[in-house]
Amino acid sequence: MSTFKKSVVQVASGAVQSFQKFPAAMLSAFAFAIVTMIRIQIDWPQQEAYNFLFNCLHLSFAFGAIFGLAAVAGVKAKYNDKKTFVAANSATLIAAGLAFILLYLFGGTKPDEAYSRIVRVTDVAAARISVAMLISFIAFIVIGGYPREKSDFSKSLFMEHKAFFTALLYGGVLEGGASAVAGAIQGLLYRDMSSKVYMYIATVVGFVAYAIFTGYFPDFAKDAEDEKRDLAQKQPKFIEILLEYILVPIALALTIVLLLWSAKTIVVDEEVRFTRLSGIATSYAFVGIWLHVMVTHYESNLAKFYKKIYPFTALIILAFEARALFIQLNEWGLKTTEYAFILTWIFAVISILLLIVLKDKAHNKIAILICALSIIAVVPVIGYYKLPMTLQVNRLENILVTENILVEGVLIPAKTEPDEATRIKVTDAVSFISGFTDKKLPDWFDKRLGESSVFKKKLGFDQTWPRPDFEPGAYIGTYLYMPSGSIDISSYNWAVNMTGSKAQDVVIEGIKRDYTIYWDMPANRIPVLRIMSGEELILEQDMNIYFDRIIEKYPPGSGMDQNPTFEDMTLKIENQAIEVMLTFSSVSISLDPETDVMSYWAEPYQLYLKEK
């Protein structure tokens, strides 16, 4: 049998054996695939009612698929008997079930027409289950490094990489081949074949790839003599070349660049955009330490030089990054990005000190450190979702008190407009705090303070934004534009141009009274039309009813032609006092597949009003 054929047979055999090695983990992965197929079959408008349930199932099954690896590997390495093997798999199923119950009962958002139309898994609940997955996987790597005479953390980590890329390679080939066959069938035999076929193929291939991944690992039994472990842990020559002669020089070059940047900040006092710096610093810290672990057993001069020089140069660079962090905190206070940077900085500093003192014996301690910091990030009081919000509220209070806008717990609109820097800081803090809609906020902080009209009314000045510092993600959605043509407006008395930044300040001098029109469009939330007469609310209507109509006719991601009529781009509202027709120049409803968050945008064009 040729080497290639033998390798393929071994991989296929390992995939089949994965059901014997990790039965509970594979069962969880199979359930994950089934839920995915059900979601593929049900289109989005119909799926909306079950969205939260599906998310809970997906997260809990994903947790079970990872937790099962660590549980089985742990009992095999420690006891290696049938009783504990059954207990580990039973514990996996119980853990997955418990995760689902906790997510379903306590991990959902509260529906709020102004903020979220559907129940979904809260960010913190998703983060906590993700941390549980991370800890389980790290435990699996650590367990794979025992017994010491057969392995260590570095070898186990490489084995994980090798299993992953093997599964990725075979999965990619299967995906490409199956999709090509499906494409040929669609192009030659059945042109009306649904695009969902390709999604089903991807789901099945994903499950097979996971089976290949788990089947690649050797027997972790403490007394087992498994030649497969030596083969799985051994780094091929091309990997050694890749790490030693490509990645190590790149890491050293990046180190030189960062050292030069550190020197430049001293000489010219140059500031770097913090979001960019945090990304570079995070990559440098994690990749640098990862590479240090991967070349643990290398004896070449270049690898030895890197292992000696990296920890000390990294400490110098981290010292200057701490300075940049201090400047950022002084300017904007602690927010989520800064919080993550602080945890990364702590991880990098402690890990590097451990590497200096303990060398390769530090690896398990570094793994434990990752787990500890991950737990800290999601616990109450000091977690990423609580501490930044608390400190931002305190920071905002101090600014408002200084500007005499917050007096004895009551907001009083500013008599004179604060300077631009203060307005930007207030806007930034209010925007950040408004994102924590499910957290308890101070009594003086209006739930809708993030809306432009409420902001101005409560604080006495317009929102002032800094230059945005983000990159938009990829979305699927519905995008509609007003068609050309005419519309009958003969029954209305007034027409209002709703375009422009001051559209919300438009005043109509009516026959019976004057009307002030407000159009509130918070980022990614449901817009609201509000018409006031002095302090009296004449009409208030959110756009939920309109978006329901649009989603029903033009489902996001359906692929159907989106050629709206005038009726599609028009909303009529009336009550006992007035009748209104609102037209839109553009409407978008998008779904972020990564976060499962719906975003809504409606650009008003003309508003027509008639008194009764």
Plain-language structure description:
This protein is an alpha+beta fold and 612 residues long. The protein has helices at 3-21, 23-41, 44-47, 51-78, 82-106, 123-144, 153-188, 196-215, 227-233, 237-268, 274-294, 301-332, 336-358, 363-378, 387-402, 420-434, 452-459, 544-553, and strands at residues 406-407, 410-411, 476-481, 494-497, 507-509, 514-520, 528-533, 536-542, 570-574, 578-592, 597-611. A hairpin with a 4-residue loop joins strand 5 (507-509) and strand 6.
Topology diagram in text:
Elements: H1 3-21, H2 23-41, H3 44-47, H4 51-78, H5 82-106, H6 123-144, H7 153-188, H8 196-215, H9 227-233, H10 237-268, H11 274-294, H12 301-332, H13 336-358, H14 363-378, H15 387-402, E1 406-407, E2 410-411, H16 420-434, H17 452-459, E3 476-481, E4 494-497, E5 507-509, E6 514-520, E7 528-533, E8 536-542, H18 544-553, E9 570-574, E10 578-592, E11 597-611
Antiparallel strand pairs: 1-2, 3-10, 4-11, 5-6, 6-7, 7-8, 9-10, 10-11
Helix pairs in contact: 1-2, 1-8, 2-4, 2-5, 2-8, 4-5, 4-6, 6-7, 6-14, 7-8, 10-11, 10-12, 11-12, 11-13, 12-13, 13-14, 15-16
